[in-house]
Write a structure and sequence with these properties.
Chain lengths: 356, 306
């Protein structure tokens, strides 16, 4: 039979992309992001090449902004790690934002009671308290998921909104600092404040905590049977069940660890940056955590790198805004564009062009 | 007391409108198997585009129209990611929300600078078809958009989903895309279409806030309404009429809280309790629906022709 269709280029699925494709993806994603965001920079009457110098290179050239990158990446590393535990298990915890605030409330409560108590007692208490609080806030959606099969995406999202109102109620009520015109809590005790890693900078013990959490994530995922169970459940529940894994228990544990770690992000922001509770402790770190975990392809070091890069973008957006007057929100746009471009490319690597 | 109840009912319809528009948009998408978490960002973008176009062109209707078009484009972007590329729907949706939130804030700062008092425009006027009829006259005092939402958008959604071939295709694609494809229907086309329709409705919901209810654009203009809409869709079991009921319940609680606060009533509990109540109610409703919730079978599943 004669084939009258003309040969044309088609995408064909391939299981073995050439080895040079994978390392190329971040580079191509960066170039793609640059081209797309250039439009906005041009709209703001700036030269994209100048802008990208201030955006991505200037912050690396002096010590103050270099440290600021680490400060800004700290909460993103922690929420990124938190989300990774859940997503790797196939539990879509979108609630890191609320869990972060739960941890922040606990840290503030404990921190305010630590007057006269040495740091060696105060800091572990706050970290544990924040972990437990985050876990408690993650418990309800997790139980609903495993016991009643209620979709966790929606419940964790709703729990974020409920938590925002709880924080507002606390700050307008029992914890309202009488000396402040704003809804904010009194300061935590000086001994409860995370110590500085470098004097006169904002870089503090929270960054060490973030690095430790990344290392623990790496060990759990690659060196423990629990990590194996989580990944098995994440790859497919029926198969994991068939292999004798207690699926629900694994999901519940991963969800609680995820919530607890998100809680620690709240502790780090209270004890390391703000020293009291305010409603604006997180500008969406919990949601950005989902993006960090995805860009880091649920890999501990990937999460660390993605968070550092996002820290650079945030710091750079501020530098750029000061230098050329480009609105600081270019940072958020760049992060989102980067995510979407990279996602598209990750999928395209599974295909190749073929003429047929 | 009578005045209180009349005001409450009137406010309920007003407050429900933006959430209902977005929730119906989400119903279309989810019925075809796509959970669009871009909803929060698309509403925000719609509110921003609607405001800026209305301000610069001087026409509120032009603002609404362009806002809807921007929502359609955002829906198509979601389609590119979740339908053509098959990216995880949670992540692509959240990515779109982040992108559109950032774009709106960027654009607003670029055009209006960092001034402390947000610019305002004269907003849509309400209409009062029942004039001086006691009780009903006052309740009928609503924005035209509210009338369009309840009397056109909802019945039309019901009609399209249950009485047209296109609606049959939508529901079938959400249940079993393979079978639909085998029957010769283009799954991609159906999914792109519902995302475009849905995006337009979500943006219209956002624009209602900036063009009718507020006459301004603020950072907190959407404040989680998109997430509430997602919950209402599940609460309403993916049926336009029940979704409308869910939106009215939410709107009612919210309006009640506003009324009580406006009366300056000293309550023994913080007023945030009322604000959080709709979210708690939604979670309880999800629990009660539990295993009975009839999720579209293909929800969250990318479809690819092999």
């Amino acid at each position: 039979m004669e084939n009258t269709e003309k040969p044309r280029w088609r995408l064909v699925k391939t299981d073995n992309p050439p080895f040079w494709v994978k390392p190329l993806i971040p580079v191509l994603a960066l170039i793609g992001t640059f081209i797309l965001t250039s439009v906005l920079i041009l709209l703001a009457d700036a030269n994209p090449f100048d802008a990208y110098y201030y955006f991505l290179f200037a912050p690396l050239e002096n010590k103050v902004s270099l440290l600021e990158i680490l400060v800004k990446s700290t909460p993103l590393m922690i929420t990124g790690v938190a989300v990774t535990y859940a997503f790797a298990t196939g539990y879509y915890n979108i609630g890191a934002e609320g869990q972060l605030y739960a941890g922040a409330i606990a840290a503030t409560g404990i921190g305010m009671a630590m007057h006269g108590i040495p740091a060696i007692v105060a800091l572990p208490l706050m970290i544990i308290g924040g972990f437990v609080a985050g876990m408690v806030w993650a418990l309800i959606p997790a139980l609903l998921k495993v016991k009643l099969a209620v979709d966790e995406v929606v419940t964790t999202l709703l729990m974020n909104s409920i938590m925002a109102y709880i924080v507002s109620a606390i700050l307008n009520g029992p914890w309202r600092d009488p000396n402040s015109g704003w809804p904010q809590s009194p300061d935590i005790a000086p001994t409860a404040v995370f110590f500085k890693l470098i004097p006169r900078s904002r870089l503090n013990f929270g960054f060490v905590l973030a690095i430790v959490l990344i290392l623990i994530l790496w060990i759990v995922m690659t060196r423990t049977s629990f990590g194996l169970k989580m990944r098995a459940v994440g790859l497919g529940k029926p198969a994991a069940k068939f292999a004798g894994i207690k699926v629900n228990r694994t999901i519940l544990t991963a969800a609680l660890i995820s919530g607890g770690i998100a809680g620690i992000a709240g502790v780090a922001e209270v004890a390391g940056i703000h020293f009291h509770l305010i409603g604006e402790i997180s500008p969406g770190y919990g949601y950005t955590g989902v993006i960090i975990a995805t860009l880091g392809s649920l890999n501990a070091f990937g999460v660390g790198l993605a968070a550092l890069f996002f820290g650079l973008v945030e710091t750079g957006a501020q530098t750029l805004s000061r230098a050329l007057g480009v609105p600081v929100y270019l940072g958020e746009v760049t992060q989102a564009t980067m995510l979407l471009v990279a996602l598209g490319m990750l999928l395209l690597q599974r295909y190749k062009l073929r003429r047929m | 007391m009578e005045v209180f109840i009349i005001n409450l009912i009137a406010a309920t319809f007003r407050v429900s409108t933006p959430i209902l528009l977005a929730a119906i948009g989400e119903t279309y998408s989810e019925r075809a198997g796509i959970l669009n978490l871009g909803i929060e960002g698309i509403m925000f973008f719609g509110a921003f585009i609607g405001f800026i176009v209305a301000d610069k062109s001087g026409s509120l209707w032009m603002g609404l129209l362009v806002a809807i078009l921007s929502g359609v484009l955002a829906g198509l972007l979601m389609g590119l990611l979740s339908v053509s590329l098959g990216v995880n729907q949670h992540v692509s949706g959240l990515g779109i929300t982040l992108l559109l939130t950032g774009l709106s804030l960027f654009g607003f700062r670029l055009v209006y600078g960092g001034r402390s008092t947000p610019p305002a425009i004269p907003s849509f006027e309400t209409i009062r078809p029942l004039g001086d009829v006691p009780v009903l006259g006052q309740i009928s005092d609503q924005y035209l958009l509210t009338y369009i939402t309840f009397l056109v958008v909802i019945p039309l959604a019901w009609f399209i989903l249950y009485r047209t071939k296109f609606g049959l295709h939508i529901r079938a694609v959400g249940e079993n895309p393979e079978a639909v494809d085998a029957a010769g229907v283009n799954v991609y086309y159906v999914r792109y279409s519902v995302l475009a329709i849905g995006g337009g409705l979500m943006a219209a919901g956002g624009a209602f806030l900036s063009l009718a209810q507020l006459g301004a654009f603020t950072h907190g203009i959407i404040a989680g309404r998109g997430w509430v809409a997602i919950a209402i869709v599940i609460f309403g079991n993916w049926s336009p009429v029940k979704v409308m009921g869910g939106a009215l319940i939410f709107g009612g609680t919210f309006a009640l809280q506003l009324r009580l606060q406006a009366m300056g009533l000293q309550l023994p509990i913080p007023y945030e309790t009322f604000l959080a109540l709709p979210y708690v109610v939604t979670i309880i409703a999800l629990v009660l629906a539990g295993r009975n919730a009839s999720y579209p079978a293909a929800l969250l599943k990318p479809y690819r022709r092999e």
